[in-house]
Amino acid sequence: MKKGFTLVELLVVIAIIGILASVVVVYFPTATKSAKDSRIISAIGQARAVMATVLARDGVITSQNFSSSTPDEMQKLTAEVSNNGSSLIFQYNSTDQTKACIYAQLQSKSNYYFCADSSGNSKYYTGTTPCSNGVCQ
Q1: DSSP H stretches of helix in 84-137
Q2: Which of 3, 63, 106, 115 is the most exposed place for a label (fewest CB within 10 A)?
Q3: pLDDT tens, 4-18?
Q4: Is 112 exposed, middle or buried (0-12, 13-18, 19+ CB in 10 A)?
Q5: What's the gap between Cα 82 and its chain centre?
Q6: Residue 137 to residues 68, 91, 112, 130: CA-CA distances in angstroms?
């Protein structure tokens, strides 16, 4: 009696492996974008902590005291967001300098942002302007 697999059995196994591989290939870009979004959101959360520290220390948040107070940390956070395909955008309120927000566009959907502000709010936003006068919309 012969031992081994028949040609039909081998073709069936190859077909099953091909189907499983195609499913993985279809979902891989979505998983990659979700992972990048998670890293961007984490960096924005860390930037919000820097914002809270600057506000507690100086009593105001401006683009100058925010970026110059912890330049190494902000450079790392900006690089982290940039490496994941987005830009970290800081906006402060020129009349009420206790209000500021930081946001970045996420990768998973078009016109989809994550915003965090100095009052502790953070949220997802769909549109073009997630931050207005230093407050997340």
Answers
A1: none
A2: 3
A3: 888 898 999 999 999
A4: middle
A5: 10
A6: 26, 13, 13, 5
